Amino acid sequence: MTFSLTKGKNGVVVVGVDGQLIVGNRQDMKQKVLDSLDAGARKFVIDFTRTGYIDSSGLGVLVSLSKKIREQGGDLRLAGLNEDLQTLFELTKLDTLFAIAKTPAEALAAF
Amino acid sequence: MTQPLRLDVRPSATGGASDFELALDVPSDLGYVGPAVELIADRFKSGVLSPRRVRFNLRTALAEALANAIAYGNRHDPRRLVHVRVEAGRDAVHIHVTDAGAGFDPAAVPDPTLPGRLEREDGRGLFVLRSLVDHVAFSAAGNSICLTLRAG
Question: B49 contacts in A (CB within 8 Å)?
Fold first, then answer.
């Protein structure tokens, strides 16, 4: 389970979540995104294409990062959720809090 | 995370040939949640639950139950263990997660989807867990939870 940060066109940082985003590794992702925010990045896409599962701690870290990024005038978007993960966001009503795109390419195009 | 997890696998004392039981003691460190979930999920690669439900429902619900037991039940106390017992039968899988804490009242946990709570970082665990399994039961003391996933 790893997180990869790639800076794409227009300075958008794409964060790939490989495996899971859960209580045991969420701090790692949070720190990586916050470091990038400190370094000046403002636009983020979290790519869940290769993600197996996300627990409530993982959801919580996304909520808190989104808030921090918005406070800095930035934006965080989500992409690549499979049907189960999409359902998880709908059940928790977090789909109302995030801009969710089908693919990372779609999320990038929306900036 | 320093010590290896040891999964105890045995045939069910009461069931038929396809039934088995698992037992696992997990130290009260959140770093063990992911590895503990994988150890148990690996035992369901084929059989009573569909691969999709193992990948998502079982993994997520078990991660929630373990994290709650470690953080709220055992309060990260390294001297305390979380006991996991899994009963896999033909019709259902029951997962018991028990901590050494004083228990809690699940009815007192607020709904995390209410407008005022939506932007909070925590407080979704029990809600997510309930959404992903077929049945949730608590022991009278509130320190043990039983998750039931029906076959399929």
Answer: none
Residue B125 lies in a domain: yes
Q: What is the CATH number of the domain that holds B108?
A: 3.30.565.10
Question: Are A55 and B55 in contact (CB < 8 Å)?
Answer: no
Rounded CA-CA distance A100/B46 in Å is 33
Domain count, chain B: 1
Q: What type of residue is A51?
A: T
* B109 in any annotated domain: yes
pTM for the full predicted model: 0.94
The single-letter code of the amino acid at B40 is: I
In 3D space, the residue among B117, B122, B134 whose CA is nearest the CA of residue A93 turns out to be: B117
Q: What was the ipTM of the complex prediction? A: 0.91
Distance CA B123, CA B125 (A): 6
Chain A residues in contact with B52 by the CB 8 A cut-off are 84
The percent of residues above 70 in pLDDT, for chain A, comes to 99
